[in-house]
């Protein structure tokens, strides 16, 4: 693991997850209009742009966690 | 190795692995081509949002309003298919050009390259070319250095923020955005994305530069899969150049036993990713041909033939012939043409009208006083055209059925959605099955080509 620079590892967690969060956001909000499912909740005031943005960051959190776990489990088992 | 040593080593790599590059300015045919790329692409990026068409922004991916405007075409979320097709076509085009001419995309058209060129131009205007910039970085912090560095970063930041603002202008009408901006009334999310994209530009084009290509770009990693021995690459002619070595201009290289490479290291100095092209093909090479330009100018000065570093193919380097029209090219080209034709056909056949048939969920069917059977539906009619229309609704496919609605001719404004509750009534003796298909159709009265048909189900009593 040591031969991989830390910056490369940081990028390996943050960057693929960023791309996939973007894809997920596009697919999700193409299928669902946030105004339709937020109108009955307490987030009814949230603009669409706000809903897309929050949605994107939630997706990013999700995908980044997955990348982080992959990165973690890649460590050799024996020390 | 103790844990602390390991940490030190990793830290070391984090900082030491990347030596700051000072790519030397280069002139020549490929540098001019790249400049053309920069001007055209950034020109499109910064000016396109300001182009008006039929009284609105010509190209606008209106996210708040969930509509994409591309000149005369207005796409709705329902039209996602076209966007997906377009993305597949773009990917295939990238494969095609990669197989044909290597990393053309990286060298001339990639946003990372294009924006980095602008940032390097700013660097050179403020700090000077490579030797001056290197000297400035080594010098102690004098007032002049502070002024130059601050000026550089302020320019970077202003340019980045303008880039971020233009970015948001592709997704929300830019003229309204500007007015809000000048009144400090931009919405919180607009402001956020201006800064987010601005920051990404500042970071990627200012600080990360070649590291984006090396560590972040997926294309850089897999482009070699599209390569074969007939793909255009940038290569150093080892046979001609070696053994390399410096010599006086009037010395005949043959007499001193040297090749044509004078080892001036100009090709290394101009390289935006900091590699030595003379070490052979490397995945860090973005194919920008800066080394080709600079080596040609050196060869001119020495009075040698140009092309010691040149665009060539592996076959040509080995003394063979390059085959441009090979199977791989034909396959990519054919796929590309078929998909492109398909997309154009699909768009030309697109009917800007959508009908959804939603059955009432509360009851399967109702029976009237006169013994007739009724089903209740909601018809959702979306007029995706840019003009209002009057539509007629009717049903087909179920003999003896009667459509009951408050009105069967409805007006729908441009870009509007109308929900129409309707009932379908039938004598149960007409029904052969419990559940039968029924067609709902809508057609614009003033434009008969605007028509769609949608299938629903009619449910009657069990038989």
Would you give an account of this structure?
- The complex is a heterodimer of chains A (79) and B (463).
- Chain A has one domain.
- Chain A has 3 helices and no strands.
- Chain A has helices at 6-31, 34-38, 48-73.
- Chain A is elongated, with a radius of gyration of 17 Å.
- The mean pLDDT of chain A is 89.
- In chain B, strands 8, 9, 10, 12 and 14 form a 5-stranded antiparallel beta sheet that branches.
- Chain B is built from 16 helices and 16 strands.
- In chain B, helix 5 (111-127) crosses helix 9 and helix 7 (143-169) crosses helix 9 (188-208).
- Helix content of chain B is 44%, strand content 19%.
- Chain B has helices at residues 3-16, 29-47, 80-101, 104-109, 111-127, 130-138, 143-169, 174-182, 188-208, 210-216, 218-222, 238-241, 266-270, 290-302, 314-317, 327-348; strands spanning 52-53, 56-57, 59-62, 67-70, 73-75, 233-236, 309-312, 353-359, 366-367, 373-383, 389-396, 402-404, 409-412, 417-426, 435-444, 451-459.
- Chain B folds into 2 domains: 14-350, no CATH class; 353-459, Immunoglobulins (Immunoglobulin-like).
- In chain B, a hairpin with a 2-residue loop joins strand 4 (67-70) and strand 5 (73-75).
- The interface between A and B is medium-sized, with 17 and 24 residues.
User: In percent terms, what proportion of residues of chain B is strand?
Assistant: 15-25%
- Mean pLDDT score of chain A, rounded? 89
Shape descriptor of chain B: elongated
Radius of gyration of chain B: 32 Å
- In the predicted model, the low-confidence regions of chain B spanning at least 5 consecutive residues are 1-16
Coarse shape of chain A = elongated
Oligomer: heterodimer
Content-based structural category of chain B: alpha+beta
- Share of residues in helices of chain A: over 70%
Please estimate the helix content of chain B: 40-55%
Q: How many domains in all of chain B? A: 2
> Over all CA atoms, what is the radius of gyration of chain A?
17 Å
Average pLDDT metric of chain B: 90
Distance between the termini of chain A: 11 Å
DSSP, total strands of chain A: 0
User: What's the SSE pattern of chain A?
Assistant: HHH
- Our measurement of the CA-to-CA distance between the termini of chain B, rounded to an integer number of angstroms, reads 82 Å
Tally of helical runs of chain B: 16
């Amino acid at each position: 693991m040591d031969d991989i620079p830390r910056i490369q590892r940081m990028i390996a967690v943050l960057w693929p997850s960023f791309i996939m969060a973007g894809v997920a956001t596009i697919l999700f909000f193409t299928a669902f209009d946030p105004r339709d499912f937020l109108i009955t909740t307490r987030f009814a005031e949230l603009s669409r742009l706000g809903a897309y943005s929050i949605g994107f960051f939630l997706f990013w959190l999700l995908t980044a966690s997955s990348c982080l776990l992959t990165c973690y489990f890649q460590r050799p088992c024996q020390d | 190795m103790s844990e602390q040593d390991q940490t030190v080593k990793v830290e070391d790599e984090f900082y030491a692995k990347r030596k700051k590059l000072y790519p030397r300015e280069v002139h020549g045919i490929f540098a001019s081509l790249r400049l053309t790329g920069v001007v055209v692409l950034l020109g499109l990026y910064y000016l396109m949002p300001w182009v008006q068409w039929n009284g609105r922004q010509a190209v606008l991916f209106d996210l708040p309003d969930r509509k994409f405007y591309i000149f005369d075409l207005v796409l709705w979320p329902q039209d996602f298919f076209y966007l997906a097709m377009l993305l597949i076509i773009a990917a295939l085009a990238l494969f095609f050009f990669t197989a044909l001419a290597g990393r053309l995309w990286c060298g001339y058209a990639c946003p990372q390259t294009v924006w980095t060129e602008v940032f390097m131009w700013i660097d050179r205007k403020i700090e000077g070319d490579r030797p001056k910039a290197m000297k400035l970085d080594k010098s102690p912090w004098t007032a002049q250095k502070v002024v130059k560095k601050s000026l550089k970063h302020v320019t970077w930041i202003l340019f980045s923020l303008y880039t971020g603002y233009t970015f948001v202008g592709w997704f929300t009408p830019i003229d309204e955005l500007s007015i809000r901006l000048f009144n400090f009334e931009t919405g919180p999310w607009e402001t956020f994305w201006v800064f987010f994209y601005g920051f990404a530009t500042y970071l990627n084009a200012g600080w990360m530069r070649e590291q984006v290509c090396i560590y972040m770009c997926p294309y850089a990693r897999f482009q070699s899969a599209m390569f074969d021995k007939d793909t255009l690459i940038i290569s150093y002619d080892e046979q001609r150049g070696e053994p390399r070595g410096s010599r006086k201009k009037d010395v005949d290289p043959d007499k001193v036993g040297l090749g044509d490479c004078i080892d001036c290291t100009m090709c290394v100095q101009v390289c935006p990713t900091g590699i030595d092209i003379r070490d052979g093909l490397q995945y860090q090479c973005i194919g920008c041909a800066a080394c080709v330009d600079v080596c040609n100018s050196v060869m001119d000065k020495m009075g040698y033939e140009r092309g010691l570093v040149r665009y060539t193919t592996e076959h040509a380097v080995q003394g063979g012939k390059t085959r441009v029209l090979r199977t791989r090219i034909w396959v990519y080209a054919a796929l590309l043409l078929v998909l492109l034709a398909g997309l154009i056909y699909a768009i030309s056949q697109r009917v800007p009208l959508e009908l959804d048939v939603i059955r009432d969920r509360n009851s399967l069917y109702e029976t009237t006083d006169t013994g007739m059977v009724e089903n209740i539906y909601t018809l959702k009619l979306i007029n995706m055209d840019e003009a209002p229309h009057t539509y007629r609704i009717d049903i087909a496919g179920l003999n003896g059925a009667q459509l009951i609605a408050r009105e069967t001719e409805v007006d729908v404004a441009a870009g509007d959605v109308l929900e129409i509750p309707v009932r379908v009534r039938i004598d149960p003796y007409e029904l052969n099955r419990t559940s039968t298909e029924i067609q709902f159709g809508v057609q614009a009265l003033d434009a008969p080509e605007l028509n769609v048909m949608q299938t629903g189900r009619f449910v009657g009593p069990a038989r």
